[in-house]
Amino acid sequence: MSPGGGATNGDALLEVRDLRMHFPIRRGVFRRLTGWVRAVDGVTFSIREGETLGLVGESGCGKSTTGRCILRVYAPSAGEIVYRGANGKAVDLASIDESALRPFRREIRMVFQDPYSSLNPRMTLLDIVGEPLKVHRIASGRQLEERVAWLLRRVGLRPEYMRRYPHAFSGGERQRVGIARALALEPRLVVADEAVSALDVSVRAQILNLLQDLQREFNLTYLFIAHDLSVVEYLCDRVAVMYVGKLVEVASTAELYARPKHPYTEALLSAVPKPDPRLRSRGRRIILQGEVADPANPPPGCAFHTRCLYATDRCRTEEPALRDVGGGHLAACHYAEELGLRGAEPVSQDGSATFSLT
Amino acid sequence: MASRLLLEVKGLRTHFFTDEGVVKAVDGVDFEIERGQTVCVVGESGCGKSVTARSILQIVDPPCRVVAGHVLLHRNADDTLDLAALNPRGKQIRAIRGKDIGMIFQEPMTSLSPVHTIGDQISEVIRLHFRGTPQQARERTVELLRRVGIPRPEQRIDTYPFQLSGGMRQRAMIAMGLACGPSLLIADEPTTALDVTTQAQILDLISQLQQELGMAVLLITHDLGVVAEMADHVVVMYLGTVAERGDVDAIFHAPKHPYTQALLRSIPKVGVGVRERLATIRGSVPPPFARPTGCTFHPRCERAMAGRCDKVVPARVPIGPANEVRCLLYGEGETE
């Protein structure tokens, strides 16, 4: 497996090329167009079959919008989303119309963040998980129930519960229902948007393990959108870091965490609180000044220059391109090679791992 | 009584009296806070950590009520007050809220008034507790906003919460909590709604202000990373009781309670590199009406002893000077 990855390769399941999603800003009585929010502004990446790509960034960076464009919840303003279907044919999802899209809605599914608001409280588990099967006319009646029971069992729920309503279940169980629903149509690509963010620590681990088991069992490909870097490291093969609508770095997980090449990635890694008091990083931690730039009015040059510790005049005027800085590691920084940035500090194996139950 | 002690919570019980029955949100919580110390209360949703924090100031709304226990505030050597015994609507407790004990909440958008400027809201606290002219209160507010790192405070003082970003709103909230120089700041999930880089800013700000002002901080959080970063002393809660408490190093490096051990094993850690399977805790937190008998953790515990943990309520067992654990592996049941 080669690290990194903007390269066009034959085994890419999904290739996103120069994707743009601009939302109009309208003001006043006449809804006059006064500007554009550049939520996603030229994003290019690919996902290989069977791989998990993590898409990380802070709120408002456009990571969820990217996911929604792939599902065609939004019609992208520009760019291509080339998906290689089960029949081997490549299709640009960004340009085809709603009716042509229908077969692909079976193959690309989504798991949502909030297990409370994403399930209809008036539908039983049977309705919720069975709905996609009905809509796509795959199963009905007795067969549908059997299929739903099987799915519930696969995600670790008891099939006897299929006539109950979501309120009877805890957050973790609801998230399992959401996953069962996403899997109902035997998808090939699953977009998980902050799928574990709303869950408690003890339950989050269960769901992460479940996602991994299901990936192995059904040969799933994941686009895992998250803000939590520790979860992303655990689950993903490669990671793409997003800032104000653009990718700033893409690399294999181990490479990105050990040797980040973009100052923003370095700051993100250093901001994650480490669960070990002996690694208390006060002072050594990089505290970014200021706030995320406004995607409706991004700064000139590199969008990160306003908060970057290493910014020079060049950064204020010239926008860096996302380029290969060695071994397939992509970074959008003029000084990626020179900076020598600090990676995630390893949590000592003899530190917090000393205790055990034996 | 040592004069270092600032707040003592003893046998606190706060229950919700709902139509469906009594929910024992907090059911016997004991801990202490020393002057200038940071104490973190950590636990999963429904463990009663927020209700504990609110019970200290008696800002729990009906049908919720503090039913037993003491909250002793030692203002100085010979001035001790039991906050739990005060009338929740009385003058005495209102003189303490915001003055001796400040509080900041999780979501500043919902806990700040949307129709008042942040300046009005902060100076209101100042004018409630100190006499002075509106002009003096305003000057102090500007000073506070500057102190919490809000740029151009002279202008920002007249903005409404919706005009500020999440991080700036939380800074304004902290300014309000600090307005009267409290000896204890209660922070209920102050960074949960924020991004990691903003979280780092806010945590840094809190510990920096703490050093300057010498106040104690009671930090309520579910994030063990935040605990490791901030705490001197940790209180681990599960279903309304304290499973274990102790100094931060002991909690992370020599946890005693099976729940603490399991929690620590179930978090993915940045920078470990090897992707081993995460350890999990089986099941999930039980619903509030179905509290297990005996030790509340026993249905999920890997070391539960059949016939014992499901029947006997464990007592507090002291481990070292400041640490204690509530588990039958280390001691006997409660003798009540």
Précis, in short:
The complex is a heterodimer of chains A (358) and B (336). Chain A is α/β, with parallel strands linked by helices and 358 residues long.
Written overview of the protein:
The complex is a heterodimer of chains A (358) and B (336). The radius of gyration of chain A is 21 Å and the shape is globular. Chain A is α/β, with parallel strands linked by helices and 358 residues long. The two termini of chain A are 37 Å apart. Chain A has two domains: 12-236, P-loop containing nucleotide triphosphate hydrolases (Rossmann fold, 3-Layer(aba) Sandwich); 259-331, no CATH class. In chain A, the strands form two sheets. An eight-stranded mixed sheet of chain A has the order 6-7-8-3-9-10-12-11, with helices on both faces. In chain A, strands 2-1-4-5 form a four-stranded antiparallel sheet. In chain A, strand 7, helix 6 (201-218) and strand 8 (221-226) form a beta-alpha-beta unit. In chain A, 28% of the residues lie in helices and 22% in strands. Chain A has ten helices and twelve strands. Chain A has helices at 63-70, 98-107, 125-135, 141-154, 171-183, 201-218, 229-235, 253-258, 263-271, 313-317; strands spanning 12-27, 32-48, 52-56, 78-84, 90-92, 108-111, 189-193, 221-226, 238-243, 246-252, 323-324, 330-331. Chain B has 336 residues and is of the alpha/beta class. Helices cover 30% and strands 25% of the residues of chain B. Chain B contains eleven helices and twelve strands. Chain B has helices at residues 49-57, 91-96, 108-111, 118-129, 134-147, 153-156, 166-178, 196-213, 224-230, 248-253, 258-265; strands at residues 5-18, 21-34, 38-42, 64-76, 79-82, 101-104, 184-188, 216-221, 233-238, 241-247, 317-319, 323-325. An eight-stranded mixed sheet of chain B has the order 6-7-8-3-9-10-12-11, sandwiched between helices. In chain B, strands 2-1-4-5 form a four-stranded antiparallel sheet. In chain B, a hairpin with a 2-residue loop joins strand 1 and strand 2 (21-34). The longest helix of chain B has 18 residues, at 196-213. Chain B starts with a strand and ends in an 11-residue tail after the last strand. In chain B, 51% of the residues are buried. The chains are: A alpha/beta (358), B alpha/beta (336).
